[in-house]
Automatic annotation (TrEMBL):
It holds the Pfam family RMF. This is Ribosome modulation factor. It comes from Pseudomonas xionganensis. Coiled coil: none annotated. Keywords: Cytoplasm, Translation regulation.
Length: 62
């Protein structure tokens, strides 16, 4: 189990990128696998950004 005291810039970036790809591909926003709050926040920030791009793309092709 992850602990809020054990994260790195690399793990934050990885969580963000995973969230971004999930949002970009239209996956639900609750599919992260992190227990550390800071990594969850990074994943969710990435998902928000990816979801925004997904929505823009969907609007363009509609």
């Amino acid at each position: 189990m992850e602990d809020d005291r054990h994260w790195s810039l690399e793990s934050l970036n990885k969580a963000y990128q995973q969230g971004y790809m999930a949002g970009l591909t239209g996956q639900p926003g609750h599919r992260h696998n992190h227990s550390a709050e800071v990594l969850v926040a990074a994943w969710e920030a990435g998902w928000d950004d990816g979801q925004e791009q997904y929505q823009l793309h969907q609007h363009k092709i509609a």
